[in-house]
């Protein structure tokens, strides 16, 4: 990181024109004897990166290490004479960053870019040289890291730096991998800085980089960063936790005995598994101590079971729950439903006769690699076929200045990239970024057209509307969730199917209370911007409709229904408005009248329960009948005229109509209609649904 580098020739840094005039083009072919720890032959790696090569070969036995040798020689020569604030040669920093990534299993291209990640910013090396010597892929990554590091906008430096970092990460997630490893090494050596600077860097790491590490699934980096930040920002709690661990060190470990029992159970069941005891890191233990109070021996770690196949995970789970007492509330299946950061495992807890409760994690070895290294374990996301095999060298052509779309880019990162472009100022971006990263769970909802939307947990239909339609969501007036009409404020759950309803009127806009239900930054920023530019709302308020008419007084009469009761007055029930050829039932009510209901009407059961006399009812041969329909629609001009015209075209008479006041731009209509023939009803309902703005028509 450039802030860590100091150059003895400080006067040259103060006079950039002298540096430009004296800049010479570096020739890698002449750097064969420039290794930090003495001369080497052309066929041998410099001793300084031997440990990097060893860690890399542990994950990639067939990797070509010649490109690492070349990258190291360039980095060492370029940083020669620069020192870190700790007094070490600056080359130790890119070496340490590269070792961190090598131990996580990063592919050779990432390691090459890591060795060179500070050269373009801090030395005379140019991007064009990197491209010529190491290929387009390395050039692209180095350029992304450089853009993150070299920004300085005064008070806005932090927000703008992380805005650029997001863009660079969206173009290639390996940029963030290097940034996280870079920050980890700097945090390890932060003791040489002033306490106030340590605190500032630790807060930024806590607020942004640790959540990003969590979302990228790089748990190995995340947990160490958490402990380092914990020690700086909460020294008393850190010392207390450290004392708890130290006091426990000399005592018997009950987890070791439980792990041995688990090994025996799995061995007897014929399941090949590796069982480990994984100590908790400082922050995890601190959280557990706050939740449970006094800690027991089994709280200081967890048992990890590694198997070969997915099916073995469930086999292990079955044996554990059979041979031990399971704590049902602690079971979580992240294999069937992986976390949004690629994490997969089975989590459970079992109680043993000695009274201890042990948490157990079951996963395959591949799951374990991804759980520890996250996106780092995925290698080159752009490599396919032969390119994948050769990703340790140069990759396919990609212009360093062009934006690429990562096919493996997670949904949360796409959302961040979308809304960061709309953030009105750095402060808004910074505050919203931290709020977005604080979301620790994601849901997936299905669109009506078959696509999917990734949203943070707690998102509402408003968030789904802006995620799918962008600014066109200003005209959204409702939604169907799993086929049922609902309001925009309704929260969504994982797996819901959402159909968003947009108004036809271009002047429609969001209501101020939408901000109370919007959870995603994209929705909140878009709504806030619209409300600022439209302080008076979308337009003149819709005139209040006339008071609803009393349909009951107009509905009287039995139409063409006939009761088997001489001289009885027959009337059709308003609750279900039966029409031929509906199956109907009649009941004698006060005054000797017969009320006719559809047989499936809830009122039928009520009539029978109170002992109303049942009367047989049939339909006359005449076909005319009366029915009540309700329509749900968007509020728009001329809607009522269009609906009545559609009704009249089928020869249907409107007996009465009720239009309720708009609610969230939705309008509820009720029509009592006299039809010349009951067979017209299906065509009538279709004609009403075809009127623009109408999205539902149903019988009462």
Descriptive account of the structure:
- With 700 residues, the protein is α+β, with helices and mostly antiparallel strands.
- Helix 14 crosses helix 16.
- The chain is elongated and about 110 Å long.
Summarize the structure.
This protein is α+β, with helices and mostly antiparallel strands and 700 residues long.
Show the helix and strand layout.
Elements: E1 5-6, H1 10-14, H2 16-22, H3 50-59, H4 66-79, E2 83-84, H5 92-104, H6 108-115, H7 119-122, H8 127-134, H9 136-149, H10 157-171, H11 173-188, H12 195-215, H13 219-233, H14 235-249, H15 254-268, E3 274-279, H16 282-292, E4 301-307, H17 310-323, E5 325-326, E6 332-333, E7 346-351, E8 357-364, H18 365-373, H19 386-389, H20 411-420, H21 426-437, E9 442-447, E10 452-456, H22 461-469, E11 476-481, E12 484-486, E13 497-502, H23 514-517, H24 521-533, H25 551-555, E14 561-563, E15 570-572, E16 584-588, E17 594-598, H26 602-609, E18 614-615, E19 617-619, E20 625-634, H27 639-649, E21 653-659, E22 666-675, H28 681-689, E23 694-699
Parallel strand pairs: 4-8, 9-13, 15-17
Antiparallel strand pairs: 1-2, 3-4, 5-7, 6-7, 7-8, 9-10, 11-12, 11-13, 14-19, 16-17, 16-18, 20-22, 20-23, 21-22
């Amino acid at each position: 990181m450039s802030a860590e580098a100091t150059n003895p020739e400080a006067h040259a840094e103060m006079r950039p024109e002298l540096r430009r005039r004296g800049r010479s083009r570096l020739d890698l072919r002449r750097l064969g004897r420039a290794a930090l720890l003495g001369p080497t032959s052309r066929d041998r790696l410099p001793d300084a990166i031997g440990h990097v090569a060893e860690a890399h070969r542990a994950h990639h036995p067939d990797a070509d290490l010649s490109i690492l040798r070349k990258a190291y020689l360039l980095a060492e020569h370029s940083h020669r004479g620069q020192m870190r604030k700790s007094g070490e040669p600056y080359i130790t920093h890119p070496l340490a960053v590269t070792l961190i990534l090598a131990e996580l299993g990063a592919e050779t291209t990432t390691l090459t870019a890591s060795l060179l990640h500070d050269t373009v910013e801090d030395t005379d090396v140019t991007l064009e040289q990197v491209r010529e010597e190491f290929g387009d892929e390395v050039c692209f990554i180095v350029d992304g890291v450089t853009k993150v590091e070299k920004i300085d906008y005064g008070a806005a430096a932090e927000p703008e730096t992380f805005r650029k970092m997001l863009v660079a990460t969206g173009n290639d997630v390996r940029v963030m991998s290097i940034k996280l490893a870079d920050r980890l090494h700097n945090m390890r050596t932060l003791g040489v800085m002033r306490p106030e600077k340590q605190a500032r860097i630790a807060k930024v790491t806590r607020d942004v980089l640790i959540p990003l590490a969590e979302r990228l699934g790089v748990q190995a980096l995340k947990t160490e960063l958490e402990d380092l930040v914990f020690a700086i920002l909460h020294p008393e709690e850190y010392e207390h936790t450290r004392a708890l661990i130290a006091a426990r060190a000399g005592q018997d470990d009950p987890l070791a005995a439980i792990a041995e029992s688990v090994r025996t159970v799995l061995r007897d069941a014929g399941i090949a598994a590796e069982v480990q005891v994984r100590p908790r890191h400082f922050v995890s233990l601190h959280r557990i101590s706050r939740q449970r109070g006094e800690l027991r021996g089994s709280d200081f770690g967890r048992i990890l079971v590694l198997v070969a196949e997915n099916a073995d995970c469930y086999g292990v789970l079955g044996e554990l729950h059979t041979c031990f007492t399971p704590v049902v509330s602690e079971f979580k299946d992240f294999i069937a439903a992986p976390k949004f950061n690629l994490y997969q495992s089975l989590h459970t807890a079992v109680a043993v006769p000695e009274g201890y409760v042990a948490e157990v994690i079951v996963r395959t070895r591949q799951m374990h690699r991804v759980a520890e290294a996250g996106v780092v374990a995925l290698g080159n996301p752009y490599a396919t076929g032969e390119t994948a095999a050769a990703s340790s060298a140069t990759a396919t052509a990609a212009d360093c200045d062009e934006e690429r779309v990562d096919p493996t880019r997670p949904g949360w990162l796409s959302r961040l990239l979308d809304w960061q472009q709309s953030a009105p100022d750095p402060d808004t971006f910074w505050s919203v970024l931290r709020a977005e990263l604080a979301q620790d769970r994601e849901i997936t909802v299905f669109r009506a057209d078959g696509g999917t939307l990734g949203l943070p947990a707690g998102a509402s239909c408003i968030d789904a509307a802006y995620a799918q339609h962008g600014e066109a969501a200003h005209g959204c007036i409702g939604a169907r969730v799993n086929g049922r009409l609902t309001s925009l404020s309704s929260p969504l759950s994982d797996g819901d199917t959402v159909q968003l309803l947009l108004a036809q009127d271009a002047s429609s806009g969001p209501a101020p209370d939408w901000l109370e239900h919007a959870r995603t930054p994209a929705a909140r920023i878009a709504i806030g911007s619209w409300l600022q530019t439209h302080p008076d709302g979308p337009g003149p308020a819709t005139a209040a409709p006339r008071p609803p008419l009393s349909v009951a007084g107009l509905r009287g009469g039995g139409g063409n229904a006939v009761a088997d009761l001489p001289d009885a007055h027959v009337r059709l029930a308003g609750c279900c408005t039966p029409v031929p050829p509906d199956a109907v039932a009649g009941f004698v009510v006060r005054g000797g009248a017969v009320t006719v209901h559809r047989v499936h009407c809830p009122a039928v059961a009520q009539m029978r329960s109170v002992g109303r006399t049942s009367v047989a009812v049939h339909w006359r041969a005449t076909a005319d009948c009366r029915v009540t329909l309700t329509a749900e629609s968007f509020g728009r001009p001329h809607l009522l005229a269009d609906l009545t015209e559609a009704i009249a075209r089928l020869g249907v008479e409107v007996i009465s109509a009720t239009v309720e006041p708009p609610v969230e731009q939705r309008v509820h209509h009720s029509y009592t209609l006299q039809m010349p023939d009951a067979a017209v009803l299906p065509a009538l309902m279709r004609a009403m649904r075809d009127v623009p703005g109408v999205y539902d028509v149903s019988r009462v």
